[in-house]
Amino acid sequence: MQLLAEKPAKEISLREVARAANVSHNAPYHHFADRNGLIRAIAERSMADLLALVRAAIAASTDPRAALRNGGGAYIRFAVEHPNAFEAIYDPTVCVPGSPTATMAPLIAGLEEALGEAALAAGLDRAADAVGFWGLVHGLGTLSAAGHFPIEVALAGYESAVDRMLPHASV
């Protein structure tokens, strides 16, 4: 994970992991069958970290609207603050759409559930709303992480969009 902070997962080799851990170059093969196994483990760990941050942000919120804002904000911040981890999570060659690993599947479900429940509690009550919400935070996080605009602009755009999406009645 320390190497991931410095470079994309696709650039990390098992030999490099061994060097960083100060073990023999064959030692990583006791834990990973190959480089793809290492990259999958990185993606799974990264998704677990993302899910934990989103859940914590939602749980710490005072009301449903704040939960939606804070959960999405945590997602965007993770994408910007940990771009290599974020990229590893959504790399379709690592986490094949429709065929996640046994470890990744419940993490994906947990993220969908956390974001979906926050959206529903705030008044976004159609299935398409949750998909749109996830697309919004993912897109803003991806664009900001790539340098298209600063995180402050992404977060302000997100909050503005959420305010417009939510029903005006008190929740």
From TrEMBL:
Q: Which residues bind DNA?
A: 13-32
Identify the residues that the record assigns to the HTH tetR-type domain, covering every copy: 1-50
**Any one GO molecular function term:** DNA-binding transcription factor activity
Species per Swiss-Prot/TrEMBL record: Microbacterium azadirachtae
Task: State whether keyword Glycoprotein applies.
Answer: no
Keyword line = DNA-binding, Transcription, Transcription regulation
- Supply the name of the protein: HTH-type transcriptional repressor FabR
Question: One Pfam family of this protein, by short name?
Answer: TetR_C_33
